[in-house]
Design a protein that fits this description.
The chain is mainly α. Helices cover 62% and strands 3% of the residues. The protein contains seven helices and two strands, in the order ββααααααα. Helix 3 packs antiparallel against helix 4.
Length: 191
């Protein structure tokens, strides 16, 4: 064999990876921060990056409930600022998100669940580091970006059959066929 890479029955060894690598943050994630030189959020932090992260979280086994728990905590901090608390007084609450993420990873039962939660922890850690720099970074950077992750996560969760819509449809079907068994399918669908 002239090529050292072809070591297994002529197959390229570099293409024969071991177990799938857990999803990670996009390369160079947030290296530029949230904002351009004019103070505007980078467009990819509202569009493509949240979508990539949401897909990775979903592939890693994170649930909608787990993700929303963190988003809800972040929004609660925003409400405190809106009610008149100074940003400096809530920085500790923002930093607590890191503790909660570490706890979630530690409580994970299986490797699959842990992989997704590790990604969530990396996401939280990286964003919290930037969000505590100021009120604008928190509100117009972190929260707007996180909102996109939650939205895309829900979108992909519904596409793969998760979420409330499926359960609502099933409840409706059960109701239609249990309460009104005498109606035909055509009359039930006409409603």
């Amino acid at each position: 064999m002239g090529n050292d890479r072809k070591t297994y029955e002529g197959h390229d060894r570099s293409r024969m990876a071991g177990p799938p690598r857990p999803p990670g943050l996009p390369d160079g994630y947030l290296n530029r921060g949230y904002f351009d030189e004019k103070g505007n959020i980078f467009h990819d932090l509202v569009t493509t990056k949240p979508e990539e992260i949401a897909k990775g979280l979903g592939a890693g086994g994170v649930t909608s409930t787990q993700l929303r728990r963190f988003y809800t905590k972040a929004k609660a901090v925003e409400q405190r600022v809106d009610s008149g608390e100074s940003f400096d007084s809530v920085v500790g609450r923002i930093l607590e998100l890191k503790q909660h993420a570490a706890n979630a990873v530690g409580r994970a039962q299986g490797r699959d669940e842990q992989a997704g939660l590790e990604l969530l922890k990396k996401f939280i850690d990286r964003n919290v580091d930037l969000a505590v720099k100021g009120k604008e970074a928190f509100r117009k950077g972190f929260l707007l970006h996180f909102q996109g992750v939650v939205a895309y996560f829900k979108y992909y969760d519904l596409k793969k059959g998760g979420g409330r819509n499926v359960s609502m449809i099933l409840r409706h079907l059960v109701f239609e066929f249990s309460v009104a068994p005498h109606r035909s399918v055509s009359s039930a669908s006409a409603d």
